[in-house]
């Protein structure tokens, strides 16, 4: 099948998470609940950062971008997955696969880069406090955030071009619950070795480079913490950076296990089970992790509630 015929006519069948009706119903309820909580939790962070002047700092600026990313990330795949769980089957046209897989890849790549930027922000704030105001001024904040979005989009577009130049006239069943572009190569009818090399290079750039930035940043932060004489100062640093480290561990642990480490054919369901973690669970946990022990966010919530109660009083 030529690329033109494939683009207009090809249909992919998603095998989903399970073929059992009872299990699909349970998963639908669980995923719908998690989706709603994810959207509400991340939306709360965005609203608080916008309305509270004391949260107008670089750290919360990047956190609001992360919250926006998480909402878009789960929305790119989960609503369609919920529809497939109800219908009992999942079918996507090639255009639908490009839109779903491309948007998920773009947003996931952007999140990888943004987590690296957030670690660099914490490094500057703790290890170079005198330079922090100039290094993370409003112009640089927007430049870093926009760069993450643009690079994520470019990575997705390059991946789409590389994958959809192949012919797909053979099997069309994908053992996944959404159209993850990388795994379409298993269905290609021609040689994909060169494409795999390109995609592996993109994965190293998008995943490992920010991950190394995070490791270097937190190594410097830990060194600075150990030099501190104040116990209160050490506690403040750990409380500020601890949440970011938890998010990084959850997100990068699952991403690296799929895109960097070798795959084993002995467990065909491994990829989609891991995908549940970084596509469904991590976006839900991000607002919880960042707000659970964050006194600034607690104070902002209390301030909003008090002002709301004051407005309602006659």
From TrEMBL:
<comment type="similarity">
    <text>Belongs to the G-protein coupled receptor 1 family.</text>
</comment>
<feature type="transmembrane region" description="Helical">
    <location>
        <begin position="202"/>
        <end position="225"/>
    </location>
</feature>
<keyword id="KW-0807">Transducer</keyword>
<protein>
    <recommendedName>
        <fullName>Olfactory receptor</fullName>
    </recommendedName>
</protein>
<feature type="domain" description="G-protein coupled receptors family 1 profile">
    <location>
        <begin position="41"/>
        <end position="290"/>
    </location>
</feature>
<feature type="transmembrane region" description="Helical">
    <location>
        <begin position="237"/>
        <end position="261"/>
    </location>
</feature>
<keyword id="KW-0675">Receptor</keyword>
<keyword id="KW-0812">Transmembrane</keyword>
<feature type="transmembrane region" description="Helical">
    <location>
        <begin position="98"/>
        <end position="121"/>
    </location>
</feature>
<keyword id="KW-0472">Membrane</keyword>
<feature type="transmembrane region" description="Helical">
    <location>
        <begin position="142"/>
        <end position="168"/>
    </location>
</feature>
<dbReference type="InterPro" id="IPR000276">
    <property type="entry name" value="GPCR_Rhodpsn"/>
</dbReference>
<dbReference type="GO" id="GO:0004930">
    <property type="term" value="F:G protein-coupled receptor activity"/>
</dbReference>
<feature type="transmembrane region" description="Helical">
    <location>
        <begin position="25"/>
        <end position="49"/>
    </location>
</feature>
<dbReference type="GO" id="GO:0004984">
    <property type="term" value="F:olfactory receptor activity"/>
</dbReference>
<keyword id="KW-0552">Olfaction</keyword>
<feature type="transmembrane region" description="Helical">
    <location>
        <begin position="61"/>
        <end position="86"/>
    </location>
</feature>
<keyword id="KW-1133">Transmembrane helix</keyword>
<dbReference type="InterPro" id="IPR017452">
    <property type="entry name" value="GPCR_Rhodpsn_7TM"/>
</dbReference>
<keyword id="KW-0297">G-protein coupled receptor</keyword>
<dbReference type="GO" id="GO:0005886">
    <property type="term" value="C:plasma membrane"/>
</dbReference>
<dbReference type="InterPro" id="IPR000725">
    <property type="entry name" value="Olfact_rcpt"/>
</dbReference>
<keyword id="KW-1003">Cell membrane</keyword>
<keyword id="KW-0716">Sensory transduction</keyword>
<dbReference type="Pfam" id="PF13853">
    <property type="entry name" value="7tm_4"/>
</dbReference>
<feature type="transmembrane region" description="Helical">
    <location>
        <begin position="273"/>
        <end position="292"/>
    </location>
</feature>
């Amino acid at each position: 099948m030529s690329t033109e015929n494939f683009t207009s006519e090809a249909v992919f069948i998603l095998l989903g998470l399970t073929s059992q009706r009872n299990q699909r119903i349970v998963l639908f309820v669980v995923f719908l609940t998690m989706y709603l909580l994810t959207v509400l939790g991340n939306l709360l962070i965005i609203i608080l950062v916008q309305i509270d002047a004391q949260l107008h700092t670089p750290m919360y600026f990047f956190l609001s971008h992360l919250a926006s990313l998480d909402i878009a990330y789960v929305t790119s795949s989960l609503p369609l997955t919920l529809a497939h769980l109800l219908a009992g089957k999942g079918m996507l046209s090639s255009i639908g696969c490009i839109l779903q897989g491309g948007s998920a890849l773009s947003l996931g790549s952007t999140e990888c880069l943004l987590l690296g930027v957030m670690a660099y922000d914490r490094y500057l704030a703790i290890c170079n406090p005198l330079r922090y105001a100039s290094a993370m001024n409003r112009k640089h904040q927007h430049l870093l955030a926009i760069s993450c979005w643009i690079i994520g989009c470019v990575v997705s577009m390059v991946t789409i071009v590389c994958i959809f130049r192949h012919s797909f006239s053979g099997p069309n069943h994908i053992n996944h619950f959404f159209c993850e572009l990388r795994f379409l190569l298993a269905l290609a009818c021609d040689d994909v070795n060169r494409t795999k090399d390109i995609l592996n290079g993109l994965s190293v750039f998008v995943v490992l480079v920010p991950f190394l930035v995070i490791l270097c940043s937190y190594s410097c932060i830990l060194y600075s913490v150990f030099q501190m004489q104040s116990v209160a100062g050490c506690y403040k640093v750990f409380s500020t950076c601890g949440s970011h480290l938890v998010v990084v561990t959850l997100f990068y642990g699952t991403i690296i296990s799929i895109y960097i480490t070798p795959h084993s054919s002995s467990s065909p369901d491994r990829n989609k089970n891991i995908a549940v973690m970084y596509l469904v669970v991590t976006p839900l946990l991000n607002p919880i992790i960042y707000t659970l022990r964050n006194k600034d966010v607690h104070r902002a919530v209390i301030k909003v509630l008090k002002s709301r109660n004051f407005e309602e009083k006659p």
